[in-house]
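Dear colleague,

Following up on Tuesday's group meeting, I ran the structure prediction for the two-component complex that the binding team flagged. I've pasted the input sequences exactly as they went in, so you can double-check that nothing got truncated or mislabelled along the way. The structure tokens for the whole assembly follow below. Feel free to forward this to whoever is handling the docking comparison.

Inputs:
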Amino acid sequence: MLKNDTFLRALLREPVAYTPLWIMRQAGRYLPEYNATRARAGSFLQLCQSPDLATEVTLQPLARFPLDAAILFSDILTIPDAMGLGLYFAEGEGPKFERPIRDEWEVRNLTVPEPDVGLRYVLDAVGQIRRSLAGSVPLIGFSGSPFTLACYMVEGGGSDDFRHIKGMLYRRPDLLHRILEVTTEAVIRYLNAQIESGAQAVMVFDTWGGTLTPAAYREFSLHYLSMIADGLIKHAEGRRVPNVVFTKGGGLWLESIADSGYDAVGLDWTMDIAEARRRVGDRVALQGNMDPMALFGSPDSIRAEVQRILAGFGMGSGHVFNLGHGITRFTDPEQVAVLVDAVHQLSRPFHAEVV
Amino acid sequence: MLKNDTFLRALLREPVAYTPLWIMRQAGRYLPEYNATRARAGSFLQLCQSPDLATEVTLQPLARFPLDAAILFSDILTIPDAMGLGLYFAEGEGPKFERPIRDEWEVRNLTVPEPDVGLRYVLDAVGQIRRSLAGSVPLIGFSGSPFTLACYMVEGGGSDDFRHIKGMLYRRPDLLHRILEVTTEAVIRYLNAQIESGAQAVMVFDTWGGTLTPAAYREFSLHYLSMIADGLIKHAEGRRVPNVVFTKGGGLWLESIADSGYDAVGLDWTMDIAEARRRVGDRVALQGNMDPMALFGSPDSIRAEVQRILAGFGMGSGHVFNLGHGITRFTDPEQVAVLVDAVHQLSRPFHAEVV
């Protein structure tokens, strides 16, 4: 039994006493204790690949702040790494692949990795984190979206223009679809294996879908996101396993995203949450959406932003508070404490009628 | 008299025979002749500061392609440089300022530069380009938006999180407003001086407004954009001088932008142009909106994208074709020739009824 299931209930739009929150990248470089563990691990990849250390950093933000969920500490690119692309981190440059996928034969050779084998270390971390959480709050599993994973797989790393994958999209859409099909199957198996290992909710991060045209978004990202929603395990341990999709920069396409089969939709901070709620009605819950940079304001301005977002969503359940993107390394943890406290305190009046 | 005024007519939604086009950053690094001139200039800044060389590169894309407008070749950061911030370009790092604006005394010391003095080289280039164009196509003048200029002024260069300016926005909104007030006055005087020197249309580039929350966008970007629209010279040389505003990533706020007082609104490629036209009605013309990366497709896929966008806008005037962002340096000029030809040929049926 979970001591605090507010997060799961809000995702399913069931009554709650306050608006739950967690923070994207809550286990991260803004925490000195995280940096200490990472230094001990030797590298970011070694940190991800050690279930002991991944468990340790997953729990760190929960020791500091009364957050309503834990999220598996892992990298977004574990799947392509397990496909054999050779993930590495060049100092100060972000993730890269030794063997990006560009040619037809490379695409044809892609296969779905067996989670139990190539991604065993992630599943072990999920199990170990669940045991360590001891029922305090739910654990979120996650994956990158097929299109987002394909961006890194084709570009060979981060990009500011995505010209290789977009060149493929326009010149050889068949090849890109093949990459996305294999990756979609891999994501479904990966997330289901996380659920079977103990994840109590799952989230798909479509970090780069928002860089597409509306037509290309529907064809190359949303279509596969929808297939994932269909393929996910919906119940485990006797309760519903809610799922969340987040396309950064997808505000213009909110209705289509809300219809893609997920329980909840993540919002970045460019979307007015009141307008979002009007547009999606009661189809989905919403997760978000404070600008991570609002944490560089004053305690008073943080509370004002929290109040603005809570009032924007309005009365009742169906809102999980979060930032609209990952918290940055330069954030002062004291400001995070202000945020967490503000959400918990200021949200109670918005749930007064229903509890 | 202009030989080709299709661009100006389309911005004013007057009948035209075909959809005109120009390309953001059309004079740029994808052209070998541009790179040759830049090498001769010594540096990007020297290129901008020489009216002879700025004229030369402004005309280069027009010698290759039958574009419907020329745009002044200049840098977006001329105004803060004239304010004394010390613009420089670190190799491979983009623009930087020697003296960013962070402290209250620095904000208080900001003054509006006199265009005739500190920006004389830009006005000289405008006059020289106009003479060289000899009435072939209109010349577009431009400026960065107050918020976009303030981003560089406060950050001291480019940024991927804007934490300094957003920290100021949340902690000391009064200081940011003061920067924006001074910059707005500077932009109005700068654009009006460009018009008096011969610019036949002007465009305000709000490159970073789309990184704000909706509330902050209205208060810190759109408010000042609207003041600029009010302050611009509307007629010169006996004809209307149309103005265009472009907030990259502003699709969610399209109605407010369309109501801010400009003749035309630029669209990036994440917005469906058919939906945009429905939302703005006949309030403004639209400019855009092909993904610059579509130029990495095949000639057939480029023509298909052009057709999709033209059909999306539909029948009649009020559309200036463009990319949704600047063309990138890796683009093959042959692909640009395909684009220009496709827009001119494929757009004629959409104007058949009205001409």
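The longest helix of chain B spans residues 173-197.

Cheers,
M.
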